[in-house]
Sequence to fold (49 residues):
Amino acid sequence: MDDFPPPLSPAEAMELRRRQRGKNIALLVVLIGLAALFYAIAMVRFKVS
Fold:
C-alpha cells in the first residue's frame, strides 16, 4: 500500500503540471471576467441612479 498511487515518471509529472497550469489559467480568466462584469454592472447601476 505504500506505492499507491504509483510514482509518476518525469514525463507524466510534466504533463500533469502542464494540464494543471492550463486549468489554473482558465479559472483566472473566468474570475477576472466575472469581476469585470460585476464592476461594469455596478457602474451602470450607479450612473442610472
The two ends are 64 Å apart (CA to CA). Residues 22 and 28 are 10 Å apart (CA to CA).
